[in-house]
Amino acid sequence: MSLQELCQKNSQMLKFRKAAKEDIEKISSLISDTARGAVAFSVLYTSAEDISDFFFVGEDENADIKSIVFDTGDEYFLVYGEEFPELFTQCRKCIMIYSKSTAEEGSAEMLQGREITELYRLLSGKNTLSFDDERRYVLRLRAVNSGLAAVFGIREGERLVSSASISSMNEKYAVISDVFTDENYRSRGLARRCLMSCVDFSLKNGRIPMLLCDGKMCPYYEKAGFVIYGKM
User: Global pTM?
Assistant: First the structure.
């Protein structure tokens, strides 16, 4: 059953509909300082789709927005309003928040301009970027140039072997993603250095560092100072 069908079946006194372009300013305001809102913005900053295509809004009898659901097509999650258990039956990811006020001084290099393409080569394991990788690069560069993202990495010689990114920031949170090390360079603490560079950058910009991860990865991030905030 699709999200739209579920929303219609389980309205909980709210009438759900797909967001319209005129709703975006209101939606942005409502989720501007929420952790889940930060995740939604992170997805949007790496997509070339129309922003309104990702949101469903639930309205009360006065047509006031009381619930907002973000739908990527593959998964969906609540970004504003009350949980509806019948809509959100599976929690696939843990939301983790950095629990300290300071961080280790960032020791990874900040990537700029075309250097950012190295991130997508690292993640894909290929030397040639695909069309989608090029599109992601352009969007990530746009976010970096707007002060809403950052990419950090560590090189071995001329090759990028480990990286972590801040994929977006809203008014309160910075979303950390793409924490990855080439399998030939693991168990050397490189990913942690990149991760802490993202944490340090976030705190210096007045944001709370946060990330999404599978449950099996929680112990790794807990050792770095993160705590479980919720699930989605």
Answer: 0.77
